[in-house]
Amino acid sequence: MKKINVITIDGPSASGKGALARGIAHKFGFNILDSGVLYRLYAYLFNMSFSSNEIANQIERHVEFIKSKEKLLVSYKSTDVTSELRSEIIAKSASEHSSKKEVREALFNIQRNFYDGAGLVADGRDMGTVVFKDAKLKIFLTASPEERAKRRLIELQNLGQEVNMPDLIADIEQRDMKDSSRKLSPLLPAEDAHIIDSSNMKLEEVFSLTEKLIKKEFI
Ligand code: DC
Fold first, then answer.
1. d(CA 199, CA 34)
2. Beta bridge partners of 194
């Protein structure tokens, strides 16, 4: 298989994939794909009563991604919808839609089209196993549910959303179970993925480990 200039970062929710992906994109000038946002957009547009067939079209025509080191902003029809997409309600609904075949198929080409030959860092659940099987470097980033709930709490508090730890841990465990046990594209490391457990690691440590792997594969 011919390998393409893509780094995939898969793992459960709140494992730090997004922060790692943004750091890599910033440092190495890579494009970025947060595939979870596409599933969240799917849920958001579905709630706006668009049919499954219309949703991919809406995303292609009206959604824009604006990247910075700290954040990936998402706008729909020129309105910033980033914090709406980050809510736990949308997360739950995205998780439900993501087990459906037609949803994964509708989003497949949109995800593939993020690769234009230049370097791309793509994070999600099935980037290394399904969407970019041909990626040069695959990472599977994980952490304990408690640690991930702590990180999510800070993220949601920064967005001004009210949440509590027991609910967050329960939500995370439930979503992990759903994402890992579904038939289509379950959350699993690719055979050739490097597995990083970041429970006891700072983001900088995860970053420098990843940087070493990138230098080995890309430079
Ligand atoms: O990474 P996230 O929490 O933003 O993802 C939201 C949901 O989308 C998650 O519960 C599972 C789903 N998802 C998926 O099935 N496949 C992906 N590649 C990315 C996300």
1. 22
2. 139
Question: What DSSP designation does 190 have?
Answer: -
Outline where DSSP puts E strands in the chain: 4-10, 31-34, 63-67, 72-76, 79-80, 120-124, 135-142, 194-197
Alpha helices in 70-202 (DSSP H): 82-86, 88-97, 101-112, 145-158, 165-181
Q: Whose CA is nearest to atom 2 of ligand 1?
A: 36
The alpha carbon torsion through 180, 183, 188, 190 (nearest 10 deg) reads -170
Flag whether the pTM goes above 0.85. Answer: yes
The residue contributing the CA closest to ligand 1 atom 6 is: 36
pLDDT digits (tens, 9 = 90+) for 89-105: 998 899 899 999 999 99
CA–CA distance, 160 with 157 (Å, rounded to integer) = 5
User: What are the residue ranges in the chain where pLDDT is below 70?
Assistant: 69
Residue 33 neighbours by CB distance under 10 Å: 28
Atom of ligand 1 at shortest range from CA of 131: 18
pLDDT at 69: 65
pLDDT at 71: 79
